[in-house]
Structure formats: C-alpha cells, structure tokens
Amino acid sequence: MSAGSALETAAAVRAGERSAREVIDESLAAIDEANADLNAFLCVTADEARAAADAVDAQVAAGDDPGPLAGVPIALKDNLVTRGVPTSCASRILAGWVPPYDATVVQRLSAAGAISVGKTNLDEFAMGSSTENSAFGPTRNPHDRERVPGGSSGGSAAAVASGMVPLALGSDTGGSTRQPASLCGVVGVKSTYGTVSRVGLVAYGSSLDQIGPFAANVADAALLLEVIGGHDPGDSTSLNRPAPDVSKHLDDGVDGLRVGVISELMGEGIAPEVVARIRAAAQALEAAGAIVEEVSIPSISACLSAYYIVAPAEASSNLSRYDGVRYGNRVEAANVTDMMTATRTQGFGDEVKRRIMLGTYALSAGYYDAFYATAQKVRTKVRADFDAVYTSHDLLMCPTSPTPAWRLGEKTDDPLTMYLSDICTIPTNLAGHPAASIPFGTDGAGLPIGVQLLGPALGETTMFRAAAVLEHSARGDGANAERHGDGS
Ligand code: GLN
C-alpha cells in the first residue's frame, strides 16, 4: 500500500528527506505485486520513471525546487498521449502506436515534478462503464476481484485504490472519473468544461470530454487539479483563466451553504444502501452548518437519452480518423476501401462499433432533426434548469453510481443496462458543470459508496470545501452501513 499522501511525499522529496528514486521504486514494487491480478496498468514505464526520479533528486541536490508534486508517482489513463510511450486507448486499432508528443496535462505534470509510472486500462476509447470493453482484458476491483472497478477509467481508479500510486488521471465524458472513483472508494473529479486542456486527450465526445484527477484524499485531488488546470492556447475550448483555486479553501467549511439533494436521483433505480449513504452525507453537511433540502430537476430524466445520442454522434465523427492510413494498425487488402473496412472491422471492438453506428444514424440526413437536434435542445434545457437551481443553491448532491460495484460479466450482454448505470453522472457533462465523487462509507458487504457533489460552472472551490467536510466526517464516523444503513 502507498506510503503517505501525494502532498506528504512531495514535501519530503522537496526537503531532501526522501529520495524520489526510493518513492518510485516503492510504487514500481507495488505494481509488480498487484498488477498481475488487477490488470490496472497496460504498460509500466519503469526505466523512464527511474530516470525521471533521478533527475528530480539531482534538482533537489542542486538546491532547485522540482515543483509541488516532486517525486510523486502518477498513473495516466491510456487515452492520454505520451511521447515515446505506447498509447492504445485499450483498442486493437491503436495497439503499438507511439505518439510523437505529450498531452498538455502530461507536460504540466512533469513541470511540477510528478513522475508517470505507466498507462492504465480503460474501456476501449473510453466507451463504457466497467472497463470490460478493453481489448486487453478487464481491470478488477481491488475491494473484490470478482467485481468491476467501474469505467471507463477503471485502471486509474484501481491503481489508486490499491495503493500502487497516490495519484492518477482519467477522462470524464459521461462519468468516467467519478463513477470508477465511487466503485473503488477514491476521490474522482470532473471540473468545469474548459478548465483542463484537452490537447493530447484522444477525443471521444469532444464537447463533453474533460481530463480529471483521481486521488486517495481530497487535498491530493485538489493539488492535482491545480497542476493540470489553466488556460492552454492549443485547445480552443480551454477557458482563458488560471486553474481553479481549490487547495487554499479546503478548510473553509460549509457553514451557511445551501445544498440541494436532487430528488430525481434518490428514488427508483437507486439501491437503498446508496440512498442511505447520501442521506448520511446530507446530515454530515447539515451538522457542519449547511442548509440542506431536496430539489427537483425534472429534465434530468431526459439526460441519459440525450447523452447516448450526442456522445456517439461526436464519437462517430472523431473515430473516422482510424482508417489504417494515419494511425495504428492496418489490415492489408486489395484496395483502399477494402483495407479501411478490414482495418476498422478487426480493429474496433463491439461497443465502439455500436457507438459509431448509433452516432452515424443519429447524424444522417432525414434523422438529424429527430435525434441529434432534439438531443441538443435537451442539453440546452438541462443546462438552463441547473443554472436556475444554482441561483438559490450553492451545491447539489446525489449518488455517483446507482449501485456499488457489480460482478464482472453481469451487464456485458445488455448494453442498455450498462448505459443506465451512468444515470447520475451524465447530467453534469451535458451541463458542462463540475462534479466530484467522494468516498462515503460502504454497503453491508464492504463495497465503497461515493457521494457526488455538483457545482455551478466554475464552482470548484465551493465543491471542494464540501468535499473536505464529507471526507472529514467519513473518517470520523467510520462511515459504514451498519451505523447508517437503510432504515437505521
Ligand atoms: N459510461 C459512459 C459512456 O460509456 C461514460 C464514459 C466516459 O465518461 N468516458 O459513454
């Protein structure tokens, strides 16, 4: 298990009390021990990590400051491009592809002294909710190896939850940092669309995609968001402002904050044990001085349908670039059309093909207005409805996932049931707003349950204040189902 938080590790490395080399060797040893079982990492960059650690140690020895994440091991979801390190998106079509540049977030991490130890498993092209759509086998949940870690960033969540690394990055198009964080019992954050550069994030649904932090605690997640966030002129959707200022306000508390519990996400379809934990979290915020009440956002019921039109539509366009010519693998054939068909037929898995077909259909002439244009109208309405609620509330809360981690294979034959597991996370992506999942106890079987906090656009600072209060409360009361379970 990991020795200390990212903050503590960086402080010790900067002060010369621990060498980055020792920290990295410890992380690599933990990966050696646990990864064969968990399949969280697709690729471990041990040599590169050791060389980077030695460089950090040389900086410290020379009296220079390597940065706020000095010597801290981090895992990168394998849809973030890394110069000289294979980036597969867990797809056969990109297997072996080695990008020629680093994503902006990867550059920012190195500049802050963080050290990547490898690339983590995901649902192919980030399409999925369980990491079972990986071409390289599923990742297992560290809390119960017969269960899924969530997805699509399941490898990153499992890597942090098992203590192989204190930090990881994921991407969140419809919940892919928050939902695996919830199922694995770690902190996962999606910040306001545009706060983190998407340069070097392999595109899934470009108007929804955001890169986000995983950490074992709230303060580490806050620091990681500050390091990766802020304007990037290379991304035209990047907001021209500094990274959200969250760390400084973590101890500000929630006294007087108005928090709404979203009633549409507390009833049918949500496991009673999950509802009980959200109610317990609401009480914890109340005890800390917040004013908590139920709120209704009826348009939430249309979000899942709208998302499963908008995201596949964007994906069908984004994935047209994998044609056997520009990237990755090629299956040779007699002519170009046959080559492209064979390459895509063999290169993409079933779910990716399903999304491409759904998206192409939704965008096709004659159906565009009925599907895509309607979904965009729903999106506008959802955003307006959230904005209206935020005129009278500082934050909202609801479950992150309708259930704790389910068994491997339980939903793989039924895509619609799998899509339903995204019901609590998708609304925020459609709205472009920030949200985070904070571990808040377990069910009766010891499986983690996350509470989701949602904020208005650029409301990260307030959201993190509440996250810190929940974390404190979860630690203090042992936050378990026996004490706070349904009906108790
Ligand atoms: N589960 C959702 C999907 O399959 C979200 C995935 C994501 O956020 N990358 O599209």
Structure, explained:
By secondary structure, the chain is an alpha/beta fold. It has one domain: Amidase signature (AS) enzymes, CATH 3.90.1300. Helix content is 39%, strand content 12%. It is built from 16 helices and eleven strands. Strands 1-3-2-4-6-5-10-11-9-7-8 form an eleven-stranded mixed β-sheet, with helices on both faces. Helix 4 links the parallel strand 2 and strand 3. Helix 2 runs antiparallel to helix 3, helix 9 crosses helix 11 and helix 9 packs across helix 12. The longest helix is centred in the C-terminal third of the chain and has 21 residues. It starts with 5 loop residues before the first helix and ends with a helix. The C terminus is likely disordered. The structure holds glutamine (GLN).
CATH topology: Amidase signature (AS) enzymes
SS-derived structural category: alpha/beta
Give the proportion of residues in helices. 25-40%
Count of separate structural domains: 1
Strand content: 5-15%
Overall morphology: globular
- Known CATH architecture: Alpha-Beta Complex
Bound molecules: glutamine
- Going by CATH, the homologous superfamily would be Amidase signature (AS) domain
Q: Taking all residues together, what is the mean pLDDT?
A: 96
Number of helices: 16
Largest sheet composition = 11 strands, mixed
Biggest sheet strand order reads 1-3-2-4-6-5-10-11-9-7-8
Order of helix and strand elements from N to C terminus? HHEHEHEHEHEEHEHEHHHHEHHEEHH
Which runs of at least 5 residues are low in confidence (pLDDT < 50)? 478-488
- Radius of gyration over alpha carbons? 21 Å
How far apart lie the N and C ends? 33 Å
- Class, according to the CATH hierarchy? Alpha Beta
Number of strand segments:
11
